[in-house]
Write the structure tokens for this entry.
Amino acid sequence: MLQDIIDEYDMENNFEYLLGRYIMFLERDGRWKHSGDPRAKIQFKSRLKKLNEEGETEGREYKKMAEWVQKQMFREQKMTEKNCFKTELSNQRNLLNEAYANQREVGNKLQSLAFDSNEESDFMKTSRAEDVAKEELHKVDMELIIMIDERLKKLQKDYDDLLNKYILECDSDEEV
């Protein structure tokens, strides 16, 4: 999936597409809002096309466009990674919920198999000891599951904070 993004933002092969997106970005940003010449946008586009066709990448506007393309590519990659991370986190939570459900089901089956007898036989003493051991194991499992869930939540929060910080830096107009 990340290779698709790299291919989409390849300046050599997709210059026309990227130029169109860059011009739309500049237009939304108000680049030609106060221009007296109605052809300013078309001339700008033609000038950048000509620079690209001639192989000149030294122009200031061409470099700004290349920087913008790199920022957009990196931003889209990070968004894709974030979505993959969210999907993986969701899958982990689903597995965790399935484990909870299976554990409850096994516990219910074990309780339904227990006898309601007043006399204690060797079987019942052994069964109670096994039940106590299973309950202790269940408590430990639940604590581990809770710790894992808390760590996943913390990781998700840290990742979201870093990604949002980077996205805000990408959206700022300081360099473009």
Observations:
- The chain has one domain: 2-171.
- Residues 43 and 49 are 10 Å apart (CA to CA).
- Residues 60-113 form the longest helix (54 residues).
- The chain has a mean pLDDT of 79.
